[in-house]
Structures are given as C-alpha cells and as structure tokens.
Specification:
- The protein is an all-alpha fold.
- The chain has a domain of 117 residues.
- The protein has 7 helices and no strands.
- The radius of gyration is 20 Å and the shape is elongated.
- It starts with 8 loop residues before the first helix and ends with a helix.
C-alpha cells in the first residue's frame, strides 16, 4: 500500500498525455518525464536509516509523475508513422523492450547492491548498498534525458514533414470535399 502512490501514472497518464502531446509534442513530454525521473531518483540516493514514509513520499510522487509524463509520449513516438497493419507489432516491440529493460535494470541494480554490501548484514552496509544501487537508475534516466534533449536540437523527419499516414488522411479529406 505504501508504494501505491507511485502508480499515480495509471490515473494521470490517460488524462495528461493527450494534452501534453498536443501542447508540447512527444519529445518535450518525454524529456519532462525523464528530468522528473532524475530528480525522483536523486531524492532517494540520500536515503537514511531514520527515513519515514513521509520523507520518501515526494520521491514516490515524482516517480509516478515521471512515468505519467514520459510513457504516453514514448508509446506515441514508437507507433507514429507505422501503418495500421503494423501497429500491433510496434506496440508489442515497445512493450517487450520496456519489460526487457526493466528486467535488465533490476539485475544490474541488484548486482551493484550485492557487490557493495559484500555479504555484510549490518544496517550501514545494507544502506550503502541501497544508495549505490539507486545510482544505477539515476544514471540510466539521466542518459535517457540527455539523448532525448539532443533530439530537441535536431529536427527529425517526422517533425519537419507529416507522416505518410497524415498525408494520406489530408488527401482523403480533400477528395471527399
């Protein structure tokens, strides 16, 4: 129940994503989510033995908001320009890559935690392991944010010209009129 607040993305994403994408575009939405993710993970790196739930709550809220901002635009970007027959495949590849990335990240985070803890069961060693392990997703999201920010500087073909599907829809509307 304590982590339920991090699932706020399931409530916010369907309502926020359409407005976000229309107003700011996919890349800016993804970047905002990643920057919030960096901030959220950074709040947890300072974790202490005396932390209460209230001290962790801001980081949990930020994690949920980060997913709310990034995942919808990522899904749109992954399937944009894919013809209708290929939408299922594109969505499946996206979901498989998210699942694989999560599993890989969990494995690396766990390995770092075990290496730093070095079988020392004391609270201080465990805390050092947690802190070191939390740096892994922090760095991963920071790299993702840097790559996304680089995408803001260089316009892509889809940012410059409409997709083939959009052109076909415009032509169909013009012919119907």
């Amino acid at each position: 129940m304590a982590l339920l607040i991090a699932g706020i993305d399931a409530i916010l994403a369907p309502t926020v994503t359409p407005w976000l994408v229309r107003t700011f575009g996919n890349v800016r939405g993804i970047l905002a989510g990643m920057v919030l993710g960096v901030i959220a993970y950074a709040t947890f790196v300072r974790v202490g033995e005396d932390w209460s739930y209230g001290m962790m709550l801001p980081g949990l809220v930020l994690i949920g908001l980060a997913f709310s901002l990034a995942y919808g635009p990522l899904t749109i970007a992954a399937t944009d320009g894919v013809d209708e027959a290929g939408q299922g495949l594109a969505g499946g590849l996206l979901n498989a890559s998210v699942q694989f990335g999560g599993a890989l990240m969990l494995a690396v985070v766990t390995a770092v935690n075990v290496i730093v803890t070095d079988d020392d069961p004391t609270g201080a060693a465990r805390l050092d392991g947690y802190r070191a392990a939390l740096v892994v997703p922090l760095v991963g999201v920071a790299i993702g944010a840097a790559i996304t920010a680089a995408g803001l500087r260089r316009p892509t073909a889809s940012a410059v010209a409409p997709s083939a599907a959009a052109v076909a829809e415009i032509r169909a509307d013009a012919e119907a009129a």
